[in-house]
Description:
The structure is a single chain. With 109 residues, the protein is mostly helical. The chain has one domain (6-106): Up-down Bundle (Multidrug efflux transporter AcrB transmembrane fold), CATH 1.20.1640. The chain has 4 helices and no strands. The chain has helices at 6-35, 40-66, 74-99, 101-106. Helix 1 packs parallel to helix 3 and helix 2 runs antiparallel to helix 3.
Amino acid sequence: xxxLNALTLFGLVLAVGIVVDDAIxxxxxxxxxxxxxxxxxxxxxxxxxxxxxxxxxxxxxxSAVFIPCAFITGVVGQFFRQFAVTIAISTVISAFNSLTLxxxxxxxx
Length: 109
């Protein structure tokens, strides 16, 4: 396991921001479509057509940036490994959440 040092905690703070941002994008898109007069189900389907691509792209780009940092060698690599693993895993979870759970719950609006 990893210790909870300052770099890991910074990674968790950044990860929370990423998770919340993706979910907000989805919920706002659904809410916008509901305000246009669509039913919640239709609004969620149309919103996912609009934002699924960008959410996937953000997840892939952030993973592509941070996963290689986990393989840095030496002392610097030991510091960045915890940060990189924290961000990469949370980015994947965030993308999955934003593509599945957020639209399903947004239908309940």
